[in-house]
Amino acid sequence: MQQERLQKYARLIVKCGLNVQKGQEVLVRCGLDQPEFVAMCVEECYKLGAERVKVEWSYMPVTKLHYDHRTLESLSEVTEVEKAEWQRKVDKLTCTLWLDSDDPDGLNGTDSEKIANANMARFPIIKPYREALENKYQWCIAAVPGREWAQKIFPDLPCDKAIERLWEAILTASRVDDDPIAAWEKHNAELARHCKLLNGYNFTCLEYKSANGTDFKVGLNPRGRFAGGGETTLGTKIYFNPNIPSEEVFTSPLSGSAEGKVVATKPLSYQGKLIENFWIRFENGKVAEVHAEKNQDVLEKMVAMDEGASRLGEVALIAYNSPINNLGILFYNTLFDENASCHLALGRGFNECLCGFENMTVEECKAAGVNDSMIHVDFMIGSADMSIVGVTEDGKRIKVFEKGNWAI
Ligand code: ZN
User: Which residues are within 8 A (CB) of 100 and not within 5 positions of it... i.e. 6 or more apart?
Assistant: First the structure.
């Protein structure tokens, strides 16, 4: 892999993704797979004037050992050190970069019930910090190849070739060409154009149909808006791109308004386990029935995590003819697979998808119909023949998607 192209990728992530400002603190969370690339990112942060960059390395086999050997009580504890670290993030609005390289099967065999229960116990303690940070700090999720991940995608290739192919796919999907930063400016403008069109219609609901059995309707929030691409932090007004790549235009639907059956078109990797060939049926906005050929118990546990886990927090539109989908690769990773296909997410919604959220408390956003939960899990429903119709307040039916692609 040419150094120069990787350098451009590191610069894209730090400049366009995080948009690190002079004097800011940065936290990088990553695996051990690509230390040279992590160093490039750290260097780019300092070039932009970061005051301090901290790297938190993790290694999935060790994470797995913790889950296997520690008691529920021990895993549930939020230590004083952790609390102090959260408080520092709140005080400093620390920019956070996740460089994902995780093995999609890395936690196979762990007790998912124990992990879920530990997360449930930790959540109320961490929640106030998360709420204090929400929409106020710059963050970015991007990916680098891990050995196991690459071999999962390309099982027939030797390991080094598989890693090379995965690098190529990541860089292509992330628009790392001659001038990636200019390419992202253009791309963000295109996403903003679709948002503007959708917001102009102010749809009350979207109706989905596909030959695979999807026949589903989701209510949209009367105060809601579609967003996509870059975001601006509250207060500090810094423009950043939380996901690299990103192809989606999304909103938070009206919590508690969903009806019918959605059939997933890609497997879902959740907590290191792969849920395959599944569908979900909604009734009165809540999950009424789930079915999966593989790991149904994980899916059941997921939708029962808390009250909001069985309701929708996100509706995202992505053309079937998208650069990521055109690569024809199943990544077993949400960052890529969610950007290859129309999707929904169960759990927490986005307050920033409500007009006027800047002047609302988290509780007010919730009362206005943004779903709240400890989880936010995307699952893909886009297909080559999918049609989506938007219904306006006065009952007009507008074709939004036809044969899997944008129709407006
Ligand atoms: Zn999404």
Answer: 30, 31, 141, 142, 143, 144, 333, 335
Distance CA(371)–CA(239), nearest Å, equals: 25
User: 407 C-alpha vs ligand 1 centroid, how far in Å?
Assistant: 20
Q: What are the tokens at 406? A: 């944008």
Domains identified in the chain and CATH numbers: 3-173 (3.40.1830.10), 180-226+247-406 (no CATH)
Cα-to-centroid distance, 345 and ligand 1 (Å): 7
**Distance of alpha carbon 191 from alpha carbon 193, whole angstroms:** 5
Dist. CA 62 → ligand 1 center (Å): 29
Query: What separation in Å is there between the alpha carbon of 346 and the centre of ligand 1?
Result: 11
Task: Summarize pLDDT for 211-248 with one digit per residue, the tens.
Answer: 999 999 999 999 999 999 999 999 999 999 999 999 99
- Spacing, Cα 125 to ligand 1 middle (Å): 26
pLDDT in tens, 35-65: 999 999 999 999 999 999 999 999 999 999 9
* Gap from CA of 180 to ligand 1 centroid (Å): 22
C-alpha of residue 334 to centroid of ligand 1, in Å: 9
274 CA to centre of ligand 1 in angstroms:
19
Return all residues near 44 (Cβ < 8 A) that are at least 6 apart: 10, 11, 13, 14, 15, 20
**Which of 25, 42, 9 minimizes the C-alpha distance to 91?**
25
306 C-alpha to ligand 1 centroid (Å):
20
Determine the Cα–Cα distance for residues 233 and 134; give it in Å rounded to an integer: 9
Question: Measuring CA to CA, which residue among 181, 149, 157, 132 is closest to residue 30?
Answer: 149
